Amino acid sequence: MEEKTFEKLLNEQEINEVKKGKIIEGKVFEINSDGIWVALEGATGDVFVSQEELIKPLQEYQVGQKIVVEITKTNDAEGLNFASERRAVWNETMNKIKEGENYPIIFKNRLRKGYSVLIEGLIGAFLPGSLSLLSPKDDLPEGEKMAKVISKNGRNIVVSIKDYAEEKINQIFNEYEEGMVIDGVVEDIKNFGAFVRLADHLNGLIPAREVSWDEKISIKDHLKVGQKVKALIIRLDREKKRISLSLKRLKEDPWKSVDEKYPIGSIAQGTVTNILPFGFTVKIDEGLEGLVHETEVFWGRKGRISDVVNVGDNVQVKILNIDKENKKINLSYKQVIGNPWETIEEKYNEGNIVTGTVEKVLNNGAIIKIDEGVSGFLHVSEISWDFVDDISTVLQEKQKIKVKIIKIDKDNKRMRLSVRETKENPWKKASQEIKPGDTVKGKIIRFLDKGAIVLIDDYEVEAYLPASKASTNSKSLEESYSIGDQIEAKVLEIGLENEFKRGNMIISVSHLQEEREKEEAIKIINEMNED
Question: What positions does the domain S1 motif occupy (predicted)?
Answer without folding.
Answer: 21-86, 179-248, 265-334, 351-420, 437-510
